[in-house]
Specification:
It contains five helices and eight strands; from the N terminus they run E-E-E-E-H-E-H-E-H-E-H-E-H. It is of the alpha/beta class.
């Protein structure tokens, strides 16, 4: 069962208060757990900024600094969703996505491609390799947050 709980927060992009939604997953016994996000990003500043903002929103965030580490962590951490940089060392995000979507144990995990490449062909390639959504850098957190929440709702309701 999914619980959507509204909470009030100051949104620095909009003056005043705005309502945001927190997604929690109900577990047997009545407890709630926050979704786990695997952030695969090699840029330390981007990783730090995104991790902090996601954690403030209540998500559990685990991180990987390159594609190979991200691929391993997708198996060991069983995240609810993956935020995948495309230009990664060791193994790029396209290849990691292909491997994860080809594997029965990980193909169900939604993946959002994060890239500074904003060409139409990059967006098409993201969907071609198996990404569930696509977002450009610099990240506009409100837009990314909506995409995360939508994919989590779709995943848990199916």
């Amino acid at each position: 069962m999914i619980v959507r709980r509204p909470h009030l927060s100051n949104n620095f992009m909009v003056k005043g208060n705005s309502i945001h939604w927190t997604i929690e997953f109900a577990v047997p016994g009545g407890g709630l757990i926050m979704p786990k996000i695997l952030l695969i990003e090699d840029n330390e500043m981007n990783m730090d900024m995104l991790s902090r903002r996601l954690e403030r929103k209540g998500y559990c965030v685990v991180t990987a600094h390159d594609g190979e580490e991200g691929h391993l962590m997708a198996h060991s951490e069983s995240p609810d969703i993956i935020l995948m940089d495309i230009s990664l060392p060791v193994m790029d995000g396209w290849e990691v996505t292909r491997l994860l979507k080809a594997n029965e144990a990980t193909r169900h995990i939604p993946i959002i491609a994060l890239t500074a490449h904003a060409l139409v062909t990059d967006r098409a390639k993201a969907f071609e390799v198996g990404c569930d959504d696509y977002d450009t850098k610099p990240v506009e957190f409100g837009r990314l947050s909506e995409k995360i929440e939508n994919l989590l709702l779709v995943r848990k309701s199916s």
